[in-house]
């Protein structure tokens, strides 16, 4: 599979989670909480049960399933996770989750979503902060923190299999941002839930975070992923072929993990995106003096030297993403 890269640098393109937030007519499925998962230790950061939303399929789509993983970053420290579990968006607790709309690739409107409108469409709600890879048995009782993302992933899929997904003819695992990363890292696990007769594919959107040098010439975001993987105990739920050949936190980067994934993956990602420029390539850690602050927020404020530097780094990040598919 060959993916071409832009040859010009007009601007960095914001990562847009195309599949979830298009402003079109949408359907809405209420939140289903899996109370029984608590007994299996499959819980959100705060110990609340996992949750999902389902809009059931019909007609010739009744036996097809699209499972979309919600995005929302990660938490890399106890303090960060304590804050996350209290956030009103429910990214650490099913008790606080607002309902999400089914839009874009999740819409039930045929004119807006001709291929998937009548499939069973699921939003896997994100409440663990590890892209569904964490699994620490010990509970942080002082802060009431649970790191069980991998178990949450399993519990939701177990629930869906009992609702008819075990009879799926076609099954797609998608996700946006951190959910897109989760779709990559959990792709083969998802495949394992189905018989060989089921067609299974994974479609991450905006989840291909690059391991690339930042403006300081270092890999500061690698250190962030080091902390995420260590805190959440993620190593055992990353592709084993990858973790046996390099340190586990590097396997959180798709450019390394994806070569060990056997299930077909179709990557949707901007060649250049402003989130990665702001939070990885020119983050505070990489640019503590703020030399790139104005530049990364408005390219018109960049000096020619800064623009050339960012262009070179974005090219490096872009190559890291797309070289795996050439």
From TrEMBL:
The keyword Magnesium does not apply. Residues 1-29 form the signal peptide. It is an enzyme of class 3 (hydrolase). It is found in: Secreted, Cell wall. Keywords: Cell wall, Cell wall biogenesis/degradation, Hydrolase, Secreted, Signal. GO terms for biological process: cell wall organization. Its EC number is 3.1.1.-. SUPFAM superfamilies: alpha/beta-Hydrolases (SSF53474). One of its GO terms (cellular component) is plant-type cell wall. GO terms for molecular function: pectin acetylesterase activity. InterPro entries: AB_hydrolase_fold, PAE/NOTUM. PANTHER family: NOTUM-RELATED, PECTIN ACETYLESTERASE. Belongs to the pectinacetylesterase family. Hydrolyzes acetyl esters in homogalacturonan regions of pectin. In type I primary cell wall, galacturonic acid residues of pectin can be acetylated at the O-2 and O-3 positions. Decreasing the degree of acetylation of pectin gels in vitro alters their physical properties. This is Pectin acetylesterase. It comes from Artemisia annua. The lineage of its organism: Eukaryota, Viridiplantae, Streptophyta, Embryophyta, Tracheophyta.
């Amino acid at each position: 599979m060959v993916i071409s890269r832009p040859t010009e640098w007009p601007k960095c393109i914001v990562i847009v989670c195309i599949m979830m937030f298009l402003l079109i007519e949408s359907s809405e499925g209420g939140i289903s909480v899996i109370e029984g998962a608590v007994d299996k230790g499959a819980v959100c950061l705060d110990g609340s049960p996992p949750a999902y939303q389902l809009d059931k399929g019909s007609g010739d789509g009744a036996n097809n399933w699209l499972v979309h993983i919600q995005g929302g970053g990660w938490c890399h420290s106890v303090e960060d996770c304590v804050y996350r579990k209290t956030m009103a968006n429910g990214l650490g607790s099913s008790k606080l989750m607002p309902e999400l709309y089914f839009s874009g690739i999740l819409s039930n409107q045929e004119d807006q979503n001709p291929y998937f409108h009548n499939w069973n469409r699921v939003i896997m709600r994100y409440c663990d902060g590890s892209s569904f890879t964490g699994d620490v048995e010990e509970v942080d009782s002082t802060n009431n923190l649970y790191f069980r993302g991998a178990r949450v992933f399993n519990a939701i899929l177990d629930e869906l299999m009992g609702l008819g997904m075990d009879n799926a003819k076609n099954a797609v695992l998608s996700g946006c941002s951190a959910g897109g990363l989760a779709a990559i890292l959990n792709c083969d696990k998802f495949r394992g839930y189905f018989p060989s007769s089921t067609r299974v594919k994974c479609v991450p959107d905006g989840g291909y975070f690059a391991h690339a040098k930042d403006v300081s010439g270092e890999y500061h975001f690698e250190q962030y992923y080091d902390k995420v993987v260590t805190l959440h105990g993620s190593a055992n739920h990353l592709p084993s072929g990858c973790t046996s050949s390099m340190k586990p936190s590097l396997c959180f980067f798709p450019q390394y993990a994806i070569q060990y994934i056997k299930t077909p993956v179709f990557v949707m990602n901007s060649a250049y995106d402003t989130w990665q420029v702001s939070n990885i390539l020119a983050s505070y850690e990489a640019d503590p003096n703020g030399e790139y602050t104005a530049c990364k927020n408005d390219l018109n404020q960049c000096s020619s030297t800064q623009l050339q530097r960012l262009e070179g780094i974005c090219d490096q990040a872009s190559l890291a993403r797309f070289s795996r598919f050439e």
